[in-house]
Amino acid sequence: MKTSALKFGGSSLADAAQFRKVASIVKAHEGRVFTVASAPGKRNKQDTKVTDMLYACYDLAVAGKDYSDQLLAIRKRFEDIAAELGVQFDAEGEFAVIASHLASGPRRDYMASRGEYLNSKLLAQYLGYDFIDPATCVFFNADGTLDANKTNDTLGAVLAKKDKAVVAGFYGTGADGNIKTFSRGGSDVTGAIVARAAKADVYENWTDVSGMLSADPRIVTSPRPIREISYKELRELSYMGASVMHEDAVFPVMIAGIPINIRNTNRPEDDGTWIVPHRKADPESSEIVTGIAGMKGFSSIRIEKAMLNNEVGFAARLLEIIASAGVSFEHVPSSIDSMSVIVDSEDFRAARSQIMESIQERLSPDALIVDTGIALIAVVGIGMVYRRGVAAKVFSALAQADVNIRMIDQGSSEINIIVGIDEDDYEKAVNVLYQAFFS
Ligand code: ASP
I need a surface site. Which of 252, 335, 376, 421 has the fewest CB within 10 A? Predict the structure, then answer.
């Protein structure tokens, strides 16, 4: 039997009606063995996520202000779910523990983790499964990163003893023995480490969209959903701002070669997107490009110097100047007598004078020019590896739309072409590129 680890996000578990949908999904296949739950999310647009309510409660407590209303509102969220589902819930006992924590030097991560802790307990009860507290089997290193090996061993041993269980998402135990959370959206990471530790065949990530879209729907009208994408393509698109999941959720399953299936709790009949270890480029397929993503907010530092190409170590010195100012670079397009470094405008702003002075001093350029207001767009697809004319199509689409290209970069993996354009042209450029490849 094929087995899955499932993760349900906050909107999938926001109220009793959503719990019912989740239960019918979990019970639909015998192989859906381990379920990771988020805290209750928003029930409607105006609503507040329980995690945000918990952070607000913590803030009031450390400021020495009255937090009793906030705590009561949180308690009510769980009581309502439990009452409507007819599930046993010891609100009195659970909230007495939280209240005594708040009264005796509250810790931010502990407070935030209670959303997942309580919601997962409720879900476990409702499903009739065991509850697993990740405080006992998910561990962090002293530097705050996941202790992947210890977690995999301990969690693996815990899961091996269970047929079915619900694991709370988002937290574990830090090196100091206290509860520690991942960054926001971290239940995705818990789902991935549970899938790996359980040696599941699939990691099903259930959310409120039917998978990834091939372009940003705020820019392109009804972009096509992506049926299948490789980890590599996903990395390229997420790096450019197209995100469906927490960034760190890919690595645990990638190591284990487990595919991820992004699904919609509100439309379980949709196939969603499959994120797979490898995808073969099919020379016959009409699908050349998998997705288009981009971001505004970049600057280019351009250095011109005669005979630059003969100067050994020039690029290394330039990048070293930028790195030692704490700025990371995105791309380094170069030509014989000039070299540009594309950086995030916000990072650059803070370090601008330091970088400019060091470049003048150490590299003696003929000209040093900074351009701001650059947007980057990545056209990503495994299908372009064996295709001729993909770059030509990108450039002619942009030229026809009168978009000036300020930078071009093709990754050596050949699965992406990145162009830098004026921020003002961004929306127009994404649209024409989408039309060129998808319609
Ligand atoms: N509840 C946490 C958050 O809102 C973690 C998660 O949902 O994944 O960020």
Answer: 335
Looking at residue 428, its pLDDT comes to 97
187 CB under 6 A from ligand 1?
yes
Top CATH class of 4-276 equals: alpha beta
Judge if the beta carbon of residue 38 lies within 6 A of ligand 1: yes
Mean pLDDT of 255-268: 96
| Domain 291-438 = CATH 3.30.2130.10 | yes
Does residue 420 contact residue 407 with C-beta atoms inside 8 Å? Answer: yes
The full set of domain ranges for the chain reads 4-276, 291-438
The closest alpha carbon to 331, from 231, 420, 433, belongs to 420
Nearest-angstrom CA–CA distance, 26 and 6: 8
| Integer Cα distance of 439 and 397 in angstroms | 13
Bridge-based pairing of strands 291-304 and 367-380 is antiparallel
DSSP 149: H
Please state, in angstroms and as integers, the Cα–Cα distance from residue 429 to each residue in 139, 338, 378, 382, 421, following that order.
Answer: 44, 26, 11, 21, 8
Ligand 1 centre to CA of 188 (Å) is 8
Task: Please give the average per-residue pLDDT across 320-335, as a whole number.
Answer: 92
Q: Are 91 and 11 in contact (CB under 8 A)?
A: no
Query: Mean pLDDT over residues 19-27, rounded?
Result: 98
Which residues neighbour 307 within 8 Å (Cβ) at sequence distance 6 or greater? 337
Matching residue, tokens 């590599």:
232
pTM score over 0.85: yes
CA of 170 to the centre of ligand 1 (A): 6
